[in-house]
Amino acid sequence: MGSRRFARTPSLPLFEGGLPCAAPPLPPAQESTPLSDRRFLMLHGEGLAAERPAVWALRFSPLVGIWREEGLILETTGLPDREPELLCHVLQAFAAAGVVVRGLLGGAPAALAALLRAGTRPQVLAPGQEAAALPRLPVTALALPEGMIPALHRLGLRDVAALEAQPRGPLARRFGTVIAEELAALRGRVAPFTPIRPPPRHVQAHEYLSPLCTAPALERAIGALADRLCAGLLESGEGVRALRLTAFRGDGSWQELRQGLGQSSRDPAHLRHLLDRRVEELRPELGFEKLILAAEVTEVLNARQSGLPGEEAQPEALSELLDRLGQRVKIWRLEPQGSHWPERAVRRADAFSLVAEAAAAPRPLRLLRRPLPVEATALLPDGPPRQLRLGKRVESVVSAEGPERIEPEWWRPPEERPARDYYRVQLASGARWWVCRRGAAGPEAKWFVHGYLP
């Protein structure tokens, strides 16, 4: 592709960048670190407790969730950035997008949320600082029912230290278990949160100091991500069936492209070719500052032995051809569905989706849109046809296989109830027809040509 710039398009506001974005790679430390040693970033702000802000925050951490309908929580365990720089980066990114947020980074999500409700300024809290700040918190900062706060005040319980000094039994009998559960959560003894979506198994991301604006720069950057993604797939013995490229602009908006594959692959050249053809769909505006390439759907892909020169093409060649054709025209495949009737036995499906294999049956590859009525002559009323007349054309039947009886489906309307008998007939002219007798055998039966056999 030449060195060209793309046409400018109106920027999309934050959280309105279209489809959800992908997550950065999942750090190994997040999988092995004990719950008590994990670190979290709690964010409070107007309108944050929604799906779009949570998905947009996946650019900072692969594990993001909505916390009690009041803010967002990001797990930061094992991320490469130092915690003070990470907190500053997240707050500045939200501020640049016009969203004012407050944030605390620490160990217990419930404690961080309570400290933010109490008005604590943004900072990184070490385990000792977090534990020392909890006893001084007023009970109004806890996630307790509103009617419970005046009752606690009447008992002289105005801060966390006073609550923790009380026996749990009398508190539970009078207020239930909500106070004990909140106190346990403050000390980090409860599972923190449920992520808004699990992170992809294989994903590559990169931030750029100079925003990417031209097609060649985007192609080089995307190609480098594809190479690293395929290296990870090769190491795990998997192939990708669906790719997702997410490009973040500097104004807080993003654009996303999805690319399906007809067969699982981890060939960097093939992925590069597919993604290079989609680069022209990207609209950099002032430039993309971050790219994320994720393998949304993967399959186990065993290594195959390459063929010798002159041998038949490998199955991958047909799959790669369909992938390229799918970028130019709409292609589809047939998917079996629960019906024995030929016209209802299959339906159209996405060419790149996983579909069940249809059972092998001696039927035409394509049915006639409108079956052709014919006149049939048989030796016996319930026997195969010996002669077929289609308009003025008369064909003699050399051989016939069948019948294949298809009974009516009981859930269909009564007018569709007549059974069908299908025959595979060989004509004297050499043609092979798939003919059907509709209704009971006899003079009242009607014959049709429903398709042509290979």
Structure, described:
There is one protein chain. This protein is of the alpha+beta class and 454 residues long. The chain folds into 4 domains: 34-186, 2-Layer Sandwich (Alpha-Beta Plaits), CATH 3.30.70; 202-300, Dna Ligase, domain 1 (2-Layer Sandwich); 330-359, no CATH class; 367-452, no CATH class. The protein is 25% helix and 29% strand. The protein is built from 12 helices and 17 strands. The chain has helices at residues 28-32, 51-56, 83-96, 109-117, 127-133, 148-154, 160-164, 168-175, 178-186, 215-236, 268-278, 315-326; strands at residues 40-44, 64-67, 71-75, 102-106, 123-124, 202-212, 238-249, 254-265, 288-300, 332-336, 346-350, 367-378, 385-390, 393-406, 420-427, 432-438, 446-452. The strands form 4 sheets. It has a 6-stranded antiparallel β-barrel. A 5-stranded mixed sheet has the order 2-3-1-4-5, with helices on both faces. Strand 7 (238-249) and strand 8 form a beta hairpin. Helix 10 packs antiparallel against helix 11. The two termini are 44 Å apart.
Give the fraction of residues assigned to helices: 25-40%
End-to-end distance: 44 Å
Strand content: 25-35%
Mean pLDDT: 83
Question: Could you give the order of the helices and strands?
Answer: HEHEEHEHEHHHHHEHEEHEHEEEEEEEE
Given the structure, what is the number of helices? 12
Shape: elongated
Largest sheet: 6 strands, antiparallel, barrel
Q: What CATH architecture of the largest domain would you give?
A: 2-Layer Sandwich
Q: From the alpha-carbon coordinates, what is the Rg to the nearest angstrom?
A: 33 Å
**Structural class of the secondary elements?**
alpha+beta
Outline the low-pLDDT stretches: 1-24
Give the number of DSSP strands: 17
Q: CATH top level of the largest domain?
A: Alpha Beta
